[in-house]
Write a structure and sequence with these properties.
single chain, 317 residues, alpha+beta, 5-stranded antiparallel sheet, 4-stranded antiparallel sheet, 12 strands
Length: 317
């Protein structure tokens, strides 16, 4: 079936590229065997429209022309479908190759692979390997959450969404009505920054805490969308990347290496414990909870209370 469709698309492309005048649907149907075998006019029309869209998706510029009699015809001019030579040096080609390898678990993987194929077709030299120069590097952005793709599309199309969200301190999820702005990956977790309509304020949501399906809603945004830099700073701040103070914790020896990497100072306490001074920003309490009994917060008191509250919420289920 795939071979038959590819052959049909190739024949249609050759017809459109080879003609000097627009060809009508009738003429195209008579010229391509697969269209002659279509059972009815409706079946042919659906097949032709799909094929035309597929060719345009592949990059073929198809013009629609109406003649003096009102009949619609189609053609693909060669000068409109001729790309200039692609000139990339080895480093540029490697950068494109690495970018294409990033999206391994999301819908963008096919688009990235297709982009490289189009570059090859447009003149990227065969002796330039877009992967080879940095073959030891395997960049990956993990996308395990089912909410990623619908939220990515909602951000792109500026569509409000509704989803159920469970805060780290809550036992049960609650419904949130959000105008999504942007998705950001930080420390291996995806976050959505957007406008929470119910709270009339900007909020950041961790995708792994979204339960159920993300539902799109009709209508326009009610709040102004900030620029990209502002959104990224918001995500970083809520995720804990921006720190304006320090915290003092006890950490079990031989554990918590990510915390040790962020530590300003480390002091051995003996009996299997170390004392660390680490940057303290929004979201640190959620991060510390992930280390369980290996971490004890010494100060400030507010951080200690936040961690205790989160642990109690987890214990309650």
């Amino acid at each position: 079936m795939a071979i038959a469709k590819a052959e049909r698309l190739m024949n249609l492309a050759l017809c459109l590229l080879g003609t000097r005048r627009p060809l009508s649907k009738r003429e195209l149907r008579e010229s391509i065997e697969a269209y002659l075998e279509a059972g009815s006019d409706d079946s042919f029309n659906r097949m032709f429209e799909r094929d035309k869209d597929d060719l345009r998706e592949l990059g073929l510029v198809i013009e629609t022309v109406e003649n003096l009699d009102g009949e619609v015809g189609y053609l693909a001019r060669r000068d409109s479908n001729r790309l200039p030579p692609i000139t990339l040096d080895a480093e540029e080609a490697a950068a494109l190759g690495l970018a294409a390898k990033v999206w391994q678990q999301a819908r963008l993987a096919g688009a990235a692979s297709g982009a490289l194929q189009k570059l090859r077709a447009a003149g990227l030299p065969e002796d330039v390997d877009p992967y080879g120069s940095f073959g030891a590097l395997e960049p990956h952005i993990p996308v395990h959450e089912a909410a990623f793709e619908p939220l990515m599309l909602a951000c792109r199309d500026r569509r409000p969404v509704v989803f159920d969200y469970r805060k780290a301190t809550a036992a049960h999820p609650e419904t949130r009505h959000v105008e999504p702005w942007a998705l950001e990956c930080w420390r291996g977790h995806w976050y959505l920054a957007g406008w929470d309509r119910d709270r009339a304020a900007e909020r950041v949501f961790r995708l792994s805490r979204i339960t159920g399906k993300v539902r799109a809603r009709a209508g326009r945004y009610t709040a102004e969308v900030p620029d990209v830099v502002t959104v990224r700073e918001t995500v970083a701040g809520w995720a804990g990347e921006i720190a304006d103070r320090s915290a003092l914790i006890r950490l079990r020896s031989g554990s918590g290496y990510p915390l040790r990497a962020k530590a300003v100072s480390v002091r051995e306490l003996g009996e299997g414990w170390d004392e660390l001074e680490i940057p303290y920003g929004h979201g640190l309490d959620a991060w510390l909870v992930e280390f369980g009994p290996d971490v004890v917060v010494l100060e400030p008191a507010e951080l200690r209370a936040e961690v205790v509250d989160r642990l109690r919420a987890v214990a309650k289920g």
